[in-house]
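Our consortium's second objective concerns turning raw sequence data into structural hypotheses that experimental partners can test. To show how far this objective has progressed, the report includes one record in full. It was chosen at random from the queue rather than selected for favorable results. The single chain below, 495 residues long, was entered without modification.
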Amino acid sequence: MYYLGLDIGSSSIKVALVHAETGKSLGVVQEPKTEMSMLALKNGWAEQDPEDWWRHVCAGILRIKSENNLADTDISGIGISYQMHGLVLVDDDGIVLRNSIIWCDSRAVEIGEQAFEAIGEDKCTKHLLNSPANFTASKLKWVKENEPEIYERIYKFMLPGDYIAYRLSGTINTTVSGLSEGIFWDFKEDAIAEVLMHHYGFDDSKVPDIVPTFSEQSTVNEQGASESGLQTGTPILYRAGDQPNNALSLNVFNPGEVAATGGTSGVIYAVTDSLSVKEYARINNFAHVNYQSGKKLRIGKLLCINGAGIQYRWLLNNLDVTSYEEMNDLAASVSVGSDGVCVIPLGNGAERMLNNKDIGTRMVNINLNNHTKAHLCRAALEGIAFSFVYGMEILKSDGSIVNVLRAGNDNLFRSEIFSNTVATLISHDIEIYNTTGAIGAARAADLHKGDFEVFGKRIMENDYVMTYRPSKDKEAYLQAYETWKKELEILLKTT
């Protein structure tokens, strides 16, 4: 028997198949093969039609079944990962009322800021662990204010993963973790956030029923089966937003365990049992997948670094080089610290970890007589690594403990220079795993049984690649980091 994992992204839908007994991945397919489109009617807006997600989910399921010669009876459970912070609205017939306002849509920023001021910092931080900001609740308030005729017809609001589960099963429900990412959860009261619901004038009846993250949340109904190619009665056993799910995919569940991704942008996700929100302006706090109301406090602290892999890609496109491998070889020919050359890689827009300052990219201390593109390649890798270390320091200042960092086998973490630099400066191992969110979601379908130890063993047996260990001689790394941090502080003072 096999588990199916669905990863509902804004660029594509990924469908993974894993063996139920061993957790071994049999493959991942992507639909569509080109990137999904977004609708931007105004600057800062971003919408998608939920029907497109569903269409690509069905195509992906049929394709992966065909490629593996599977019958619908071979699938014993489904796990779902999805793009966080999106808003889907349906009427009492389950019909979508408007396009989904997705994660990168910024129309509700001002609404969230006004709510934070009106509710007050103390209440927001103690009850919500965040500012309402541009999260799902604020997007719903935007609909209430600007599209009242649609708001009046709302039966339930949903997150993207909730909607896909609904299309499969005909049942509308959600999780505490999902509600927390929309800032609908009150951590102090361990209940729906009435302080926010009251402020925004929301009716509690619009909130979906709550089910445990790991449980039989619903089962595929006849319509879902006929459209998706799954068997009627197949259970949906897991659901989570993409960043908590990425952490789960790397076996990150407990305080001291940290997950990281290093793509175009970077994410550091630390699990803690603390409700400290000292750095709420720079870190988001959500209920992790194994948070249990009144039983187990597991908070995922999420810190984003917009300027990460995009910096290295920019160099690839603008230097006389042909590949990342060539760049890495050039970087390896230069010693730690890049002979004083510093790259501040934060040129991909405003950085939340810098209190939303947009400082841009800077390349400094370049000597035109001595320095070459090799120095730029090394300085860029080190600068991105230093940004991750800087983010880790913010997480530590907010009460996070770091015992181990686990990361996917993506471009940045494939770089020995990047990973060694981070490992040495945080003084902890970095474990690398070759996995994806879709594979993690598929494996998580087995966690309704509650055996997290077996889950972790399957990740180690199937996905483990290698471990980067801190260098014993870290003085050069520390000096280079201090030089970089001084340059960053100068920019922060003058920007």
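The partners drew two points from this record. The first strand starts at residue 2 and ends at 8. The two ends are 57 Å apart (CA to CA). Both points have been shared with the crystallography group to help prioritize constructs.
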